[in-house]
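Q: What does the assembled structure look like for these inputs?
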Amino acid sequence: MENKQVNEQTYRERVYKIVRAIPPGKVMTYGQIAEILGEGYTPRTVGYVMHAADTQTVPWQRVINSQGACSTGKMMMPVNLQQKMLEDEGVKFNEKGRCDLKIYGWMPEGFEETKDNEEQPSLFE
DNA sequence: CTCGTGACGGGGG
DNA sequence: TCCCCCGCCACGA
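A:
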């Protein structure tokens, strides 16, 4: 392709692509996404990117912080909105507004912590 | 070009 | 468990 813009996914779109792949009832953390995308990405920047996400085409509610809680705060809408949307998908939160990442946490195939397996380049890079 | 900001994370007390 | 501090990097002013 001569037009590089087409082939070159923008910094943000790489994040969105992963978010769109998260199945309902599952969640991912900012740090996890940053780690999958590799160098150049940090939890901070992933959050920044999510801030500008198109809420109509990206399941933004499935991205939460490493504590298992919604970090949306009160900046955009009722804090409960994100949590409520997730609960509607079957994610259970405790009184402190946290869910169990060991249960609801999700990762694209081929990334399962690579215990004794080598690192896989990634299907999202 | 520089500066500040932010949907974060992890370590330490 | 909670609170504080520091590092991280894209992006707008």
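Confidence is low (pLDDT under 50) at residues 1-7, 114-118 of chain A.
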